[in-house]
Amino acid sequence: MSNLKLGISENGRLSVCTVDRKASIVSSIYQDVSPTKPKENISPCPSQHSFVDQEGSKVTRVESMRNAIDLGRRASVKVDGPKTVAFDNNNATNPGEALGNGAVVSKPKSRSGSIIGAISPIMGTATPGVPTRSRPSSKMTKYVECWGADKPFANITDSTLAKNIGISSLAMIEQHLLPQRTCCDFSNNSEGLGRITLGFKNREQERQYRNQPDGQFKYYVACAATLFLLLAFIQLLTVHKSVIIYAAFGPTLITLLVFVYLSWSDGRSGILLSDISDDLYVDNCSKPGQVVAKNCYIRLTMFVISVILISTCAVINLFQAYIIQDFPIERKNSNSSLNETFITIIPLFVDSAPSYLYSSVLTLASISVFLRAGFVLKLVLMLLTLIIHITLFTSAELFIQYQNQDIVTEDSMYPYAPKAGLVLVFLAALLHILDRQIEFTSRTDFLWKHKLKFEQEEVETMRGINKILLENILPAHVAQHFLTSVASKDELYHERYSSIAVMFASIPNYKEFYDETDVNKQGLECLRLLNEIICDFDKLLLKPKFSGIEKIKTIGSTYMIASGLRPGKEEQIDGNTKEEHTVAILVEFAIALMTILDQINRESFQRFKLRVGLSHGPVIAGVVGAQKPQYDIWGNTVNVASRMDSTGLMGRIHVTEDTAKVLMNAGYTCECRGPTFVKGKGTLITYFVKTPNIGGGL
Ligand SMILES: Nc1ncnc2c1ncn2[C@@H]1O[C@H](COP(=O)(O)OP(=O)(O)OP(=O)(O)O)[C@@H](O)[C@H]1O
Q1: Could you say which of 73, 463, 465, 482 has the lowest number of CB atoms within 10 Å?
Q2: For the whole model, what pTM was predicted?
């Protein structure tokens, strides 16, 4: 780091480059900022533009890469001490990154420099030896969406699941995973209800409450009809039977019977429905009873009509039970005598006065039986009934006559009409108190149901989050095992496979790139780039084509994966075909990784190369550990695959002889490398798989 190369470009950028082991990086950067280049070509580079245009989501990566790349590209250097200088004051990509005083202040793009990978984020350092979490299955797309392929937990706040409970951070997930609140906390039932009207303070809740279907409405109508029949029975037995009584009672009875028929034809009784056409109903309600139960306006109309009819019938005959008699009166004065007629109204059936009182009582009762009609509306109807009926009673001759007739008895000191009125007022008050209590219970019940639903949704969300977390720690089938298995918890979870393929893909020259200096914030910027690379590798796993591949872990800059880890699926396909497929898919994946890395190289002006080691054979898989459990695979196949990587060449896929044979059967071309010394195995004949010339090689 002692050799510095300093220069000022045409655009005014000060270029100070370190001439050290990062010479290759710097040379490309230096080219970019060289005075010979026109200003517009300097920054950002064209490939960045095209990259950003191609895929909006990659902007983050590009920005993040800039941080790491700009270490060299923008020719940062440590000058005599800890202070870091940025030289690209004109073209700083982020105002915060290049301050006027030259100090580099790059805001962290990742959650933490120590989390690498999105699908299986890992904790650790940039040096080898990091634990890992594995990706969720492709079936769990929605959870993966929530998890975010760019960064661990990237989209968690945007997910529907998260919105349900308002998760904004991982800490909140934990908080929700250990809920402090129980349903018993809802101690105040009336919370959210108005004191007088008992209406919900929340308008939407009020609307929902009113629009609730009322399956009990048919019983209310039946009760009202029964009360009317009782009223009719009393009146027909006791009062004078005039035409008007039949004219009122007949249509009322018919109307109430129609209401009963309509409300009871809901498909449950099975006796009143057969001949009703389905075309009459909408909103999936095929029966009139269902329509009535569902539509609050229809129910309200039926209620009001029923009450008006019953209330009218209760008093309609009050002024019919009279005979009008003319009494001739002869008046004599001094000159002549005048014959005048004195008209007298004589009520008939004077004893029937209490029947009207009973009818009023039944009317009030018929209002009260509509339990869900709303106690305010019921109160209004009761008051109207009271006012009309009491007014009629006080003005009716029948009640006066009844009073006169009753005068001889002891308790008839007060007129009968006010007494009847008082009884009715008391009854109405009593019914109103009951109505209010019923409505209060019904509304709090609604609130409880609402809260219960919310709690259930929360539980579902918790389950979802548990699943997300578990599936990001373990492969989907293993997570499923732990979520659903009834097997003994003490038993070690393991799977034996006769033939799976294992691949180690490492970036050997990452070690050269990694540097813990102040320029890159003690390695943070290097780690950031590694994270971007691993995240891009992870994204590949989401492709359906690679759904059979399981990420095992990352070890430093080495990406370890395996294919064929699907318990129960082994027997489904013929052994050879399966073997070819599991090995070939890893080769495909390795080629895809190389392509991605090459693209990253172009965008970040790096020269990373992938070195791949591949082997296939039997392995044992299992989950070890209780805290931070880890799914891993062990066996000779894994050791050999690792050795194939460590003894391989950059940009090549190095395989054993057996694996090469399988690949050649699958149509791949393999070139023999010759005898290779493999530690612990001796000298083996190994092969390189021929791949398309990605990135032009070294
Ligand atoms: N499950 C695994 N995850 C990661 N690496 C593994 C795993 N199993 C084996 N390896 C690697 O395979 C390589 C070969 O393992 P082996 O047991 O044959 O050799 P070793 O002598 O223990 O390892 P080394 O000599 O490299 O320290 C080792 O480098 C080891 O780290």
Answers
A1: 463
A2: 0.54
